[in-house]
Amino acid sequence: MKLDFAKMFLGVSALSLMASAAVAQEKTLTINSFGGAYEEAHRACIITPFEQETGAKVEIVTAYSADAFAQVRAQKDAPQFDIIHFSGGQEIVAANEGLLAPIDAAKVPNLANVYDFAKANVAKGEGPAYSIAAIGMIYNTEKAPSAPTQWTDIMDPAFAEHLVLTDISNGYGMLGFLMINQVNGGTLENIQPGLDAVTKLLEAGAIIVSKSPEIQQEFAQNDAWLAPYASDYGYTLRKAGLPAGFVQGEEGTPASLITVNMVANRPNEDLALKFIDISVSPEAQQCFADALRYSPTNSKAELSAEVAADVAYGEDGVKGLLRFDPIAIEANRAAWVEAWNKTIAR
Amino acid sequence: MTDRLENMALVMPGLLLLGLAFILPVLQMLVLSVSGPDGFTLEHFTRFLSDSYYLGILWRTVRLSALITLITALIGFPLAYIMAKSGPRLRLWLTLIVILPLMTSVVIRTFGWIVLLGRSGMIPSMLRDLGLVGRSFSIIQTESAIVIGMVQVLLPFMTLSVLGVVMSIDGRLEEAARTMGCSFMKTIRTVVLPLSLPGIVAGGLLVFTLSASSFVTPSLLGGSRIQVLAGSIYNAVTQTLEWEFAAAQAVILFVGVALVLVPYLSVTGRRNG
Amino acid sequence: MVSGTPIWARYFAVIFIVCTALFLLAPLFVVMGVSVSESQFISFPPQGFTLHWYEKVLSSDAYVNAAWTSLWIALTVTIAASLIGGAAAIALNRRSLPASGLMSAALLSPLVLPTIIYAIGMLLLWSAIFGPISPLALAIGHTVIALPYVVRTCLAVLADTDPFLEEAARTMGAGRLQRLAFVVLPQIKPGLLAGGFFAFNISFDEAVLSLFLRKPGLTTLPVQIYGQLEFSPDPSVAAVSTMMIGLTIVLLIIIDRTLGLGKIASV
């Protein structure tokens, strides 16, 4: 009798141990985020609401898209991420290589209200875009001789030594370059006009940085007046007390989509889908736009007039966005980066 | 148990660790350098070796590494000699000063240089105020910046390497040379320098290899317009996602370093007898 | 000897030392200056004076946890690399093994390869065999790249020792373990100390392997600093570095008081 009791006790505790282990395992979702202010907003707008709603715990690894992609690819056999966020189009390659799981739109109710272009290939594994960074021009409102209005203003000799370009290894840098290429007569089939323009700009004294914080450094310390870059970063500079304005060029505003993707071969599919659902919900997107001035992808998101002025908002606002064919970008990325490197090399 | 067995037992853990945790994973990467969509290929190597842009990167890497090695030796040898000849207190402080940069995170250290050498940094503006350079003068994003930053990082390796040898030189040798009429400089040249050569060679080896394979300092100080091989490898891994090409470049770096080091070692080795 | 040094050489020595010290320390002074700046950017010369950034670092879980992670891994690596590298150096120094030259070269090879290639290879292999990353993977990786330094310092130290001492111990009847413990160990000790010192540093400062072999809860201090600089640079990174510099000075002085710093100078 005593023995039985002990057995029972052991059995029960073993069971409960297993159960709690299983629960603990199921209830953790591993994701990447982009650090700093972005991660703070990410937490406030998406992660905390998700944790409250599901009771699951979210673990964050701070990693930019490029590093995160390298990790996901190398860990193909035993992925540690459930959800991976990309801002540079890596989802196209990742989905192609089978690293991402297809998303069943029926299980993500909020997808219904997301603009079509932001969810075109979810069935192939390319996760939906949950926010859009608009690429335009950040300028120094105090020192710039005049506010730029169109992309061709970048070529204005008045900016020469005060122009900051971004390396195309950076996603925003790539879109800015493609726009410079386009206004100089280039196309996605021919980027030579863009490269020639960059050569001219460099000869005139422009400098090239490769990371966002360097742009801040240039504006704060080194007398930068103009930098083609994203709206959210212009807002970051302004919040940091710098005289930075943001304008969208008249020729069009390239859009950089930030996507939320489900990693293949992970056991937490339902939780991951729930996370994606919250990411594309109107509430989360309003919150993101308020905090960082990203444009929403959910047509039901409602923004205040002040915020709306800074972003591409509503059906019409989004129509003004320009999307360089992401598949063409992915197909050409390596060749373009090489050509770019050769152009800028000293 | 024989002596041989004892030696095998001693060296085995190291070889096992190296084989399983270094050579195996690295081989796996290096196999990529000869793999293409249809099996074996040398296209990644021909791509590199037939392109003047990449050959330029390789040449810059070797050239800068050699320059950095030379400068660290030029500073490191006198520094080590002075340290060896100074009293224990001063030597403690000098050792501290030499080792401190080594102990500061590379990112931070490099960042200090960015502040000092940047366009509106202290040194360029000082030179500008003195009227020595033009308005747009900058050190950052030039090869000089890479050399300055790398010398600071690698000087400890050279200095400590030479110091160990110089400390073990018998002081009476120098005295003998002096009493026999050698000048101070001649004593250094004919007695101290040849005797410290093993330290300089060992330090030079370390400095050359480390500068050829380092990436953080060159990429931060040189910027994206001045690429070195390690930076190019990093870009191929994380940005253009061409791991095969990255692996091929790593093989080329490896072979390049070996090609420089083998003659260097055999020449210096012969001179040491 | 000093009596024979010409006066110009002494002046040269003083000027040379001052210039070298300035060169080596200038960036560190910049970092210290930035760490007390009131500006929320990393800017120099510093504006005003505040200890706010130190407070921010010390009250940040991310930094404190990262520091502990780094410390644990670095200690593990120091012990493992010293044991493995020291043993290998003893055997290689005796030159009785076949291909010992090749083995020495192999043991030094991790120095040549850019860490990123190793990092990706390690991540691929570990994921394929063991699955999820663990701190052990990172410790093993760091041990591999720290190993060459230990082997080098130990070989350098052993090269200067008297090989006949061991022979003498043998003729006097000392067993293998006794010889290792009482003859070879004291001989190699300075090399082990110096090698261990480097191993600790290399692990503590390594960023590339740590960047790729990371997972939630396994973030080392350099990765934390790198992330902070990359994503939202503010003077807190300078504050961390200043604390690390201070810690280094203390550590070096302790080593000097207990063992003599000269021991490290034998790389």
General description of the model:
The complex is a heterotrimer of chains A (346), B (273) and C (267). Chain A is α/β, with parallel strands linked by helices and 346 residues long. Chain A folds into two domains: 11-132 and 256-316, D-Maltodextrin-Binding Protein, domain 2, CATH 3.40.190.10; 133-253 and 326-344, D-Maltodextrin-Binding Protein, domain 2, CATH 3.40.190.10. Helices cover 46% and strands 16% of the residues of chain A. Chain A has helices spanning 2-26, 36-54, 65-74, 90-96, 171-183, 192-203, 212-221, 231-239, 269-279, 282-292, 305-310, 314-319, 326-344; strands at 28-33, 57-62, 83-86, 129-140, 164-166, 207-209, 226-230, 244-247, 253-262, 321-322. In chain A, the strands form three sheets. In chain A, strands 3, 4, 7, 8, 9 and 10 form a six-stranded mixed β-sheet that branches. In chain A, β1, α2 (36-54) and β2 (57-62) form a beta-alpha-beta unit. In chain A, α2 packs antiparallel against α10 (282-292) and α5 (171-183) packs across α6 (192-203). The longest helix of chain A has 25 residues, at 2-26. The N and C termini of chain A lie far apart (86 Å). In chain A, 52% of the residues are buried. Chain B has one domain: Orthogonal Bundle (MetI-like fold). Chain B has a two-stranded antiparallel sheet with strand order 1-2. In chain B, α3 runs parallel beside α7, α7 (143-167) packs across α9 (184-213) and α9 packs antiparallel against α12. Chain B starts with a helix and ends with a helix. Chain C contains eleven helices and no strands. The two termini of chain C are 25 Å apart. The model of chain C has no long low-confidence stretch (mean pLDDT 85). At the B-C interface, α1, α3, α4, α5 and α7 of B face α1, α3, α4, α5 and α6 of C.
